[in-house]
Amino acid sequence: MSTAGRRAAAIAATRRGIIDAARELLATQQWQRFTVEAVANRAEVTRVTVYNQFHSKRGLLDGVLADLTDRAGMDQLLTDTQDLSAGEACALIVRRTCLFWHSERQLLRPLFGLAGADLEVASILTQREEWRGNQLRHLVRRLTTEPPFDQADVLAGVIAVTSFPTYDALGPLADDPARAALLVNHLVRSLTG
Amino acid sequence: MSTAGRRAAAIAATRRGIIDAARELLATQQWQRFTVEAVANRAEVTRVTVYNQFHSKRGLLDGVLADLTDRAGMDQLLTDTQDLSAGEACALIVRRTCLFWHSERQLLRPLFGLAGADLEVASILTQREEWRGNQLRHLVRRLTTEPPFDQADVLAGVIAVTSFPTYDALGPLADDPARAALLVNHLVRSLTG
DNA sequence: CCAGTCGCTTTACATCCTGTATAGTGAGTC
DNA sequence: GACTCACTATACAGGATGTAAAGCGACTGG
Question: How far apart are CA A51 and CA A37, in angstroms?
Answer without folding.
Answer: 10
